[in-house]
Design a protein that fits this description.
This protein is mostly helical. It contains three helices and two strands, in the order H-H-E-E-H. Pfam families: Prefoldin_2.
Length: 135
Protein backbone atom coordinates (compact mmCIF):
# COMPACT_ATOMS: atom_id res chain seq x y z
CA UNK A 1 0.00 0.00 0.00
CA UNK A 2 1.27 3.43 -0.85
CA UNK A 3 0.82 5.92 1.93
CA UNK A 4 0.13 8.67 -0.60
CA UNK A 5 -2.82 6.71 -1.97
CA UNK A 6 -4.36 6.16 1.48
CA UNK A 7 -3.48 9.22 3.57
CA UNK A 8 -6.44 8.79 5.93
CA UNK A 9 -5.47 5.21 6.66
CA UNK A 10 -1.95 6.30 7.50
CA UNK A 11 -3.16 9.06 9.83
CA UNK A 12 -5.53 6.66 11.61
CA UNK A 13 -2.71 4.15 12.09
CA UNK A 14 -0.46 6.86 13.49
CA UNK A 15 -3.20 8.07 15.81
CA UNK A 16 -3.84 4.53 17.03
CA UNK A 17 -0.16 3.70 17.65
CA UNK A 18 0.19 2.30 21.13
CA UNK A 19 2.61 4.10 23.41
CA UNK A 20 4.64 1.42 25.15
CA UNK A 21 6.70 1.87 28.29
CA UNK A 22 9.85 1.96 26.12
CA UNK A 23 8.30 4.66 23.93
CA UNK A 24 7.48 6.74 26.99
CA UNK A 25 11.05 6.32 28.22
CA UNK A 26 12.35 7.54 24.84
CA UNK A 27 9.99 10.52 24.93
CA UNK A 28 11.12 11.37 28.47
CA UNK A 29 14.77 11.02 27.47
CA UNK A 30 14.20 13.29 24.48
CA UNK A 31 12.58 15.89 26.74
CA UNK A 32 15.52 15.78 29.17
CA UNK A 33 18.01 16.07 26.32
CA UNK A 34 16.06 18.96 24.82
CA UNK A 35 16.10 20.83 28.14
CA UNK A 36 19.82 20.12 28.51
CA UNK A 37 20.47 21.28 24.95
CA UNK A 38 18.68 24.58 25.53
CA UNK A 39 20.61 25.19 28.77
CA UNK A 40 23.93 24.34 27.10
CA UNK A 41 23.08 26.51 24.10
CA UNK A 42 22.36 29.51 26.33
CA UNK A 43 25.62 28.97 28.20
CA UNK A 44 27.51 28.50 24.92
CA UNK A 45 26.17 31.79 23.56
CA UNK A 46 27.17 33.66 26.75
CA UNK A 47 30.64 32.13 26.81
CA UNK A 48 31.14 32.71 23.07
CA UNK A 49 30.19 36.37 23.53
CA UNK A 50 32.67 36.69 26.39
CA UNK A 51 35.32 35.00 24.22
CA UNK A 52 34.74 37.55 21.47
CA UNK A 53 34.93 40.35 24.05
CA UNK A 54 38.32 39.07 25.19
CA UNK A 55 39.51 39.02 21.55
CA UNK A 56 38.59 42.69 21.30
CA UNK A 57 40.24 43.44 24.62
CA UNK A 58 43.49 41.79 23.53
CA UNK A 59 43.55 43.98 20.42
CA UNK A 60 42.83 47.11 22.49
CA UNK A 61 45.59 46.30 24.96
CA UNK A 62 48.10 46.04 22.12
CA UNK A 63 47.41 49.68 21.24
CA UNK A 64 48.16 51.02 24.74
CA UNK A 65 51.40 52.65 25.89
CA UNK A 66 53.68 50.27 27.81
CA UNK A 67 54.71 52.87 30.39
CA UNK A 68 51.28 53.67 31.72
CA UNK A 69 49.61 51.28 34.24
CA UNK A 70 46.07 50.30 33.45
CA UNK A 71 42.99 49.63 35.55
CA UNK A 72 42.19 45.93 35.53
CA UNK A 73 38.89 44.74 36.96
CA UNK A 74 39.06 41.88 39.43
CA UNK A 75 35.65 41.00 40.80
CA UNK A 76 33.99 44.29 41.73
CA UNK A 77 37.16 46.38 42.07
CA UNK A 78 39.76 47.80 39.73
CA UNK A 79 43.46 47.41 40.41
CA UNK A 80 46.35 49.16 38.69
CA UNK A 81 48.65 46.79 36.91
CA UNK A 82 51.40 46.90 34.32
CA UNK A 83 50.25 46.44 30.76
CA UNK A 84 52.36 43.30 30.33
CA UNK A 85 50.77 41.68 33.39
CA UNK A 86 47.27 42.60 32.20
CA UNK A 87 47.97 41.14 28.75
CA UNK A 88 49.21 37.90 30.30
CA UNK A 89 46.15 37.69 32.50
CA UNK A 90 43.75 38.33 29.61
CA UNK A 91 45.54 35.71 27.48
CA UNK A 92 45.22 33.18 30.33
CA UNK A 93 41.50 33.99 30.71
CA UNK A 94 41.03 33.75 26.94
CA UNK A 95 42.71 30.35 26.86
CA UNK A 96 40.49 29.00 29.64
CA UNK A 97 37.37 30.42 28.03
CA UNK A 98 38.25 29.05 24.58
CA UNK A 99 38.67 25.60 26.14
CA UNK A 100 35.29 25.98 27.84
CA UNK A 101 33.62 27.09 24.59
CA UNK A 102 35.11 24.08 22.78
CA UNK A 103 33.82 21.75 25.48
CA UNK A 104 30.35 23.25 25.33
CA UNK A 105 30.36 22.92 21.54
CA UNK A 106 31.25 19.23 21.83
CA UNK A 107 28.52 18.68 24.47
CA UNK A 108 25.98 20.41 22.23
CA UNK A 109 26.94 18.20 19.28
CA UNK A 110 26.73 15.00 21.37
CA UNK A 111 23.37 16.00 22.82
CA UNK A 112 22.03 16.87 19.36
CA UNK A 113 23.20 13.51 18.01
CA UNK A 114 21.35 11.65 20.80
CA UNK A 115 18.24 13.73 20.13
CA UNK A 116 18.44 12.98 16.40
CA UNK A 117 18.67 9.25 17.11
CA UNK A 118 15.61 9.41 19.35
CA UNK A 119 13.73 11.48 16.74
CA UNK A 120 14.32 8.80 14.12
CA UNK A 121 12.95 6.06 16.36
CA UNK A 122 9.96 8.07 17.57
CA UNK A 123 9.01 9.50 14.17
CA UNK A 124 9.31 6.01 12.64
CA UNK A 125 6.69 4.74 15.07
CA UNK A 126 4.42 7.76 15.55
CA UNK A 127 4.92 9.77 12.34
CA UNK A 128 2.99 13.03 12.42
CA UNK A 129 1.22 12.09 15.66
CA UNK A 130 4.25 13.33 17.60
CA UNK A 131 6.01 16.68 17.31
CA UNK A 132 9.62 16.83 18.42
CA UNK A 133 10.55 20.02 16.60
CA UNK A 134 11.21 23.34 18.28
CA UNK A 135 8.51 25.91 17.74
Amino acid sequence: MSSSRFPLLQRKEERDAEVTWEDQQRINEFSKLNTRYERLDDEYKREKEEDEYLDDLIMELELLDDDEPINYKVGDVFIKMALEDAQARVQRDKSRLSTRVGGLDAELAATQAKMDDLKKVLYAKFGQAINLEKS
